[in-house]
Description:
CATH topology of the largest domain: Dehydroquinate synthase-like, alpha domain
Strand content: 15-25%
Oligomer: single chain
Shape: globular
Structural class: alpha/beta
Low-confidence stretches: none
Number of domains: 2
CATH class of the largest domain: Mainly Alpha
Mean pLDDT: 96
Order of helices and strands: EEHEHEHEHEHEEEHHHHHHHEEH
CATH architecture of the largest domain: Up-down Bundle
Amino acid sequence: MAVIxxxxxxxxxxxxxxxxxxxxxxxAAAPFLKGYAGGRAVPFVADxxxxxxxxxxxxxxxxxxxxxxxxxxxxxxEDAKTWGVLERLCDWLLALGVTRSDHVFAxxxxxxxxxxxxxxxxxxxxxxxVQLPTTLLAQVDSSVGGKTAINTRAGKNLIGAFHQPALxxxxxxxxxxLPDREMRxxxxxxxxxxxxxxxxxxxxxxxxxxxxLARESHALEHAIATSIAMxxxxxxxxERETLDKRALLNLGHTFGHALEAETGFSDRxxxxxxxxxxxxxxxxYSARRGEISAExxxxxxxxxxxxxxxxxxxxxxxACDGAALVQxxxxxxxxxxxxxxxxxxxxxxxxxxxxDVDLADIAAFLDGELSR
Length: 372
């Protein structure tokens, strides 16, 4: 078991990592369930797959404390992060009589967490919520830090708010039901923490990553806890990404989001897979600029490929050129006026924000990677 504090001024909260914690939910989240005594149902949001697998476990855990859940179930995937679903969720919460002192429970991956967090940010100008992430990607990334959003025709996660959870409960045992591809996609974000700020952790993952992917208990908990501890420190120092500290968490994302856009935000390329390939591109572009060696760039690529993640842009079979990918980048929410910051590497374990990147050079670099 591990408990990690996210030390935000005035709004601290804990991340609890414990095998089996979902089964003792009523005890682990007791302070956030007090308002539901006396017959009020506890609002839970899940996608259809997560509801099918875990609703019975949640219902049983709550029943032990004399509580019951009321479920709002959405379809799996990014299509749940729309204006229409957000409106229905907010109407549902208001119909339940949710108050600003209540807490809504988000059970699922990053889509559910993003949707619930944003709904709670705007309902009655701020309702509390508890994150119960069921994917590795959500456990090590989106459940912590308070970024919430929905998608629009203009792009992914462009409408949202910063709204921190009151508690994050992580049960590594739920990952037993996670498809291997989703597990690998989540592992990309674990690798990200090593590459952006912890060379020793990256080396540990090179040696033990297969154990993490195999869901071996001690290795998995260490990987999750180390990742979250780093994110907690970064978020506490730069909650709203007004400094360059939190921006480091975007390593691989500028390239990755362009790849997601080019593939239609579809199952052709999962978010974690896009980030993995984005990190390879960031490493190789850093080598192109002479900031790391070509060998270090390929070391990063080997670690990503060893996890079964995409490590070569040419392997995607995209019908576009580098200029088309750069055009997707111009819509990135991190764009600053006419410039776009890139997360690059000074070494394996040290990322930084570069604001002097020539997008024409990025396009030329990507053309080379597309034909690699």
